[in-house]
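Q: I'm writing a short explainer about DUF241 domain protein for a general audience and would like to include a description of its predicted shape. Could you first generate the structure from this sequence?
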Amino acid sequence: MAVSLKFNNFQNKSISLPSRSHPTTIRIEEELNKIKTSTSTSTTSCADNICNGLSQLVELHHFMDHLLVLPATQSLISLDPKATWVEEIMDSSMKLLDVCNIIRDIVFQMEEHVQDLQCALRKRNDHTGIDNSIANYNSFRKKTKKNAKELIMVLKQSQKVMGLVADPDNHHLTSLIRVLMEVAEVTISLFELLVIYISASDLKCNGWSLAVSKLIHKGAVACKEDEKYKGTMNELEAVDVSLLKILRNGVEQTPNNIMQMTLCRLEDMLAKMQRIESGLQCLFRVLVRTRASLLNIISL
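A: Of course. Here's the predicted structure. Afterward I'll give you a sentence or two in plain language.
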């Protein structure tokens, strides 16, 4: 989301504020740089990287909420609550909430399918149960890939060039608009990565998230048949490969070591999904609080 600041006179609408950025604004900018730097240089797996990114986003939005409740910030926004940039921020906050909720629901459903697979595989003699669980999981994965394309389109539509009006004599307003846009941008970018990860898709992303998306492969592990993963795969792709082997061999003919390997991969995948869900729960709560703060301000 590129931000273009157009400087015009507000006539009598501008308010007198210190020319330097507020400490909270500076802290937000520091957190933004920290997220971008840590994500682009991380050597951890993509799932771990996303979980860390979610934790950092929660911290970032906490600072953002603190900035929004400052009297100076409230004065700036309430001065012209129907300004284009205010409306854009409100629209962006709603979209972020919606997407976060959708992704959270997908992750939760994925956990349920993984647990169902684990239960079925542990009952080795229930061949029909295993076949049904795998079929249900594969159907869900196909649906997830389809939904992922739609979500990416929504996120990309949010990454648009905006012409925003700012008073050149009001540095606080300029800084406020910039950090609001950048926080939205980095949140959208991480959502893109998360959608691509949970769909194990080859969807492409733009901007900052393009550089970070390399971690999907950087964090993958090359290995042989008797190791944890084969080829360069994330946790979801590894599970897909294991389940495909079971389907090809047939449940009765599948060696016990492949069954055990599949269970291990499912356990690994479930742990990652639970961490991601926890991060999304925390992020969703802080996004709700931020939107409530914005609504309170424009209603003043």
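A: For your explainer, you could say: The beta strands are 3-7, 162-166.
Q: Perfect, that's easy to follow.
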